[in-house]
Structure to design on (195 residues):
């Protein structure tokens, strides 16, 4: 089970660049594991670290103001490129719980939502306000399906009910099915074929 998310309040970290692909989120050379833990150190590795392996002080995630920020504001077409679950795993392991962008690649968004990372497309006006207010607190309320900025700006969003439920419960497709095993066994038992 994952950490349930009904309400997320966090400062934002902004990488306002379009077309950030999954290879930039987690370079292919780090796809040698199926373990989720530890991938956060490789999140944005080619931007985050210099050639000698030291942190790049210019990269926003290495700056002290970004410490603890759980909401990433990104540019359009975030998560494009190849399909890899490692990308949302790396973001989650790096402490990011939600991504807000003008558009999010479909495959990445599906992988993100199914792995507990809230990936929400926002309109251009809200995106611009988020960029201008980088580092400010934002509230994402899954119960009321709204985003609230620290200046009182409110934006509503819709999330597919099953995915929303899974995020709020900290579950996934398998947890949903496992919780229903007794009912499934009962259903199958009532309809068992006997010769």
């Amino acid at each position: 089970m994952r950490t349930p998310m009904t309400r997320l309040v966090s400062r934002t970290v902004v990488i306002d660049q379009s077309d950030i692909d999954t290879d930039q989120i987690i370079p292919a050379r780090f796809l040698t594991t199926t373990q989720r833990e530890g991938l956060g150190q490789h999140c944005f590795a080619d931007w985050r670290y210099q050639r000698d392996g030291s942190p790049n002080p210019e990269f926003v995630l290495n700056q002290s103001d970004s410490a603890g920020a759980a909401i990433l504001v990104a540019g359009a077409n975030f998560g494009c490129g190849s399909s890899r679950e490692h990308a949302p795993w790396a973001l989650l392991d790096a402490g990011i719980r939600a991504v807000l962008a003008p558009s999010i690649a479909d495959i990445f968004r599906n992988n993100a939502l199914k792995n507990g990372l809230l990936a929400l497309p926002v309109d251009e006006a809200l995106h611009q306000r988020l960029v201008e207010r980088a580092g400010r607190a934002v509230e994402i309320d899954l119960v009321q399906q709204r985003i609230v900025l620290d200046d009182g700006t409110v934006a509503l969003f819709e999330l597919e009910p099953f995915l929303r439920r899974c995020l709020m419960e900290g579950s996934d497709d398998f947890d949903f099915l496992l919780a229903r095993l007794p009912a499934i066994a009962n259903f199958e038992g009532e309809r068992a074929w006997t010769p």
Q: What stands out?
A: The longest strand covers residues 7-15. The first helix runs from residue 22 to 25.
